[in-house]
Structure formats: structure tokens, C-alpha cells
Design brief:
The protein is mostly helical. 65% of the residues lie in helices and 8% in strands. The protein contains 17 helices and eight strands. It has a two-stranded antiparallel ribbon. A two-stranded antiparallel ribbon has the order 3-4.
Length: 426
């Protein structure tokens, strides 16, 4: 439990100070260090919480309530999530893209057309909101711990017996309230991922308020992130079958990450641009935008190839040729009984280039929507650095898990697809 304790101790101040640094210290590490050591940072955070705390609370409550209504109320095609080792099959409604479009339209209407709320205020309340979300997340994760101990939603739960470990990693794999309120879909998709496209729009509104116009560097960063998030919500059904959902239980690790870390970290480049506008020449701007969109499309295309092969049981074409696959057998234990299972390993298309090639365009896309920041500072590029470390670590972790799961079939796959991420490099 030492690792989880260490992470929880530093993660909250890290998220808060990251936002503080980009708003008040121009994204400079030296300014942040001086401000923290002198006590200035704590004074400013306290003052903003006192001045904007109530407004930030109301803003967060309204947003969360609105997204909860969309989650529970929007009609959508029902689909099944992956079956768990206990035989449980989570049920979902495919409403991600609809919720995304409605959220953006409502934000536009209440700000630009009706004048009910100025999106630039989100920038003003942002620091106070991040502090409050961290406090909320601590209590919320305690609720998840108690719920997992006393009234779990399914048999897919694990109790280690160590409070810190169970609080951090979570107990339930699919925590729900009632029939349709899936907690992980709400924290990950309807709150965390939905704040991602909204925050850059709010920062752009603040830049317009400060300077009378929005720079094309801001437009580039905002537009590429909107495209990426549209891709995510279009593909949300696929996301509900990823590691985040299938293996990570509902605890501090994933829920705090989506409620606090994502909103404080994933858009720091756009947050920085708010006060530091820059205009590229038209050719450079066009190149950045087109290159970013291509990377997002290739990332989706790679995921689509894998989904298509599994949905057709390998009876399809990839890049004009019959899909090359390995039918990997493995043993899965359910309720003390061993069952033989099969899965498909795709060896052609992007998955024949490297075993995790889809990470390459995802990292490059983040570079293109962060590069409008310019050069000279490291913190505004923190998301790119974090994503690169995360995905390289995940690739290694997934390879180890697959090796244990598929045994000789994975060895055969690695002989056919020799590179882990970057062809001829790694």
C-alpha cells in the first residue's frame, strides 16, 4: 500500500498546482517553485476559493446534473460489454456521440445565442473548481469503497482487506446505482471526457475577452481536440471494452483520474494559450491542422481494423487482402471451473506493422494540438509527455499480460509482428 499512498498524497496538489502554474505563473517551473516556497501559491489558491468557490460549485453541479440527465435519459441502441470472469455482462446504451453533440450545442446556445452564461467565466472559476473537484473525488471514492463493501452491484468485486489498497484500486469492477447509472461511464465519459472539449472552448472565449479576438494557434488546438473527442464518443462502444473498463475497478485510481486529473492536465496547452496568443502563417496552420486530423483518423482506423476482424470472426479484408490472424486459445477460470476460450490476434494492417501501432498516431496527434504553444517551456507540453510515458508503459504491461494469457500463441504473434510500437525502432 506504500505506492498507492504515495500517489494519493502527491496527486492532488499536483493537479491543483498544475492549473495554478498555467494561470498565474505563465507555465514556468521556476515561477511555480518560487511561488510555492514563498507561500504565495497557497494564498492565491485560498483567495480564489473564497472568491469563486460558490460560483464554481454551482457551475460544477449544473454541469454534472446535465450530463447525468443525458446519461439516463437519452435513447440509444443497447449493447453488451465484455463478459467478465464471473459471467456478468454489463449493459449499456450507445448515446456517447449524441450526448457530445447536445453538450456542445447547449454550450453554444447558452453562451453565444441566449447570453445566459459567459464561457470565459469557466477560466475565472477554473482553479477553484479543480480544488472542489479534488475534495469531491475524495468523498466520492469513499462512497465507492463503502458501496463495494456493503451493497455491490455484481459479483465482479475484489476486497483485499487493506483500506488504502481497496480505496485506491477500488472494489467493484462495474459499480452502478440502480439499473442504468453506470458510475464508470459517468466519471470517465460523461464527466471526464466531456470536460475535455468544453474546457478549450472556454479558454478560447477567455482569450477573446482579453484580446478581442482568438488567435489561429488557439483555433488549431481547440479544433483538433474537438475532432479527437468526436472520434472518442463515436467510438465509445469500443472504449467500454478497453482496459480502463474491463480491468480497472472503480476506485481512486480511475475515478479521481477522470474527475480531477483529466480536467487539470489534458488541456494545459490550451490553458497556456489563453494569455499567450500566437498566430501562425496560413500554410503552417493548414499543415498542423491537416497532419493532426490525419493522425486522429489513422488512430481510429487502426482500432476499427481490430474491431472489424473480431466482429466478422476474421472473415474480412484488411488493406484489400484477407485478414491474417492467429486464433489464440487460452484458459479462463470461472467459479472454480476452467473453460477453454479463443480470441483473434490480428497480424495484418496496422497490427502487422507493430503490436501497438495505434499509439503512434495518438501521440503525434497530441503533439499537433499542443505545438501551437510554441517552444521554450516544458509544462504546457506535459500532456504529451504524460501520454507518451503512459502508452509506452501500457504497451509493455499489455505484452506481459498477453504473454501470460496466450502463451505460445503470443510468441508466434511476436515472431510475425516483431516491433512493439515504433517499426524498426521499438
Amino acid at each position: 500500500y506504500i505506492g498507492p499512498t504515495f500517489i494519493m498524497v502527491w496527486s492532488i496538489p499536483f493537479a491543483i498546482l498544475q492549473v495554478y502554474c498555467h494561470i498565474h505563473e505563465g507555465g514556468t517551473i521556476s515561477g511555480l517553485i518560487e511561488s510555492v516556497s514563498s507561500g504565495k501559491a497557497l494564498q492565491i489558491i485560498g483567495a480564489e476559493l473564497q472568491e469563486n468557490g460558490w460560483n464554481a460549485f454551482v457551475m460544477l453541479a449544473c454541469f454534472m446534473s446535465f450530463e447525468l440527465v443525458l446519461l439516463l435519459g437519452l435513447p440509444g441502441k443497447k449493447y453488451d460489454g465484455p463478459k467478465t470472469v464471473t459471467g456478468h455482462v454489463p449493459k449499456y446504451h450507445d448515446t456517447g456521440l449524441t450526448a457530445y453533440i447536445i453538450t456542445l450545442l447547449v454550450a453554444y446556445l447558452i453562451s453565444e445565442q441566449l447570453g445566459w452564461f459567459n464561457l470565459a467565466l469557466v477560466y475565472d472559476y477554473y482553479l477553484a473548481a479543480i480544488v472542489e473537484m479534488n475534495m469531491f473525488a475524495l468523498v466520492f471514492c469513499l462512497f465507492l469503497y463503502i458501496k463495494g463493501r456493503t451493497f455491490p452491484s455484481s459479483t465482479d468485486n475484489r476486497f483485499d482487506g487493506i483500506f488504502v489498497s481497496d480505496y485506491y484500486r477500488g472494489i467493484e469492477l462495474y459499480p452502478r446505482i440502480g439499473k442504468d447509472f453506470d458510475i464508470k461511464m459517468f466519471t470517465n465519459c460523461r464527466f471526464g471526457m466531456m470536460t475535455w472539449p468544453l474546457l478549450p472552448l472556454c479558454f478560447a472565449a477567455k482569450q477573446r475577452e482579453l484580446y478581442g479576438e482568438i488567435s489561429n494557434s488557439m483555433w488549431l488546438s481547440v479544433a483538433l481536440q474537438l475532432v479527437y473527442c468526436a472520434k472518442f464518443f463515436y467510438w465509445e462502444k469500443g472504449y467500454m471494452g478497453t482496459t480502463d473498463i474491463m480491468h480497472d475497478r472503480g476506485g481512486y485510481y480511475i475515478c479521481w483520474g477522470c474527475l480531477c486529473y483529466l480536467p487539470s492536465t489534458y488541456t494545459v496547452h490550451t490553458l497556456f494559450l489563453t494569455k499567450y496568443p500566437y498566430n501562425y502563417s496560413a500554410p503552417v496552420a493548414a499543415f498542423i491542422f491537416v497532419a493532426g486530423v490525419v493522425c486522429i483518423f489513422v488512430n481510429y482506423w487502426a482500432d476499427y481494423q481490430r474491431i472489424m476482424v473480431r466482429e466478422t470472426d476474421g472473415d474480412c479484408k484488411i488493406w484489400g487482402k484477407k485478414a491474417e490472424i492467429i486464433r489464440a486459445e487460452y484458459t479462463e477460470t470461472r467459479e472454480g471451473k476452467a473453460e477453454k476460450k479463443r480470441n483473434i490476434l490480428l497480424c495484418s494492417g496496422f497490427w502487422g506493422v507493430s503490436r501497438h501501432f495505434h499509439y503512434v498516431p495518438e501521440i503525434l496527434a497530441s503533439v499537433f494540438w499542443a505545438c501551437p504553444v510554441g517552444h521554450g517551456l516544458i509544462l504546457p507540453y506535459f500532456y504529451v509527455i504524460f501520454l507518451t510515458i503512459l502508452l509506452f508503459h501500457r504497451a509493455g504491461r499489455d505484452d506481459r499480460k498477453c504473454s501470460m494469457k496466450y502463451g505460445p500463441h503470443w510468441t508466434e504473434y511476436c515472431k510475425k509482428v516483431q516491433y512493439r510500437i515504433i517499426p524498426y525502432v521499438y
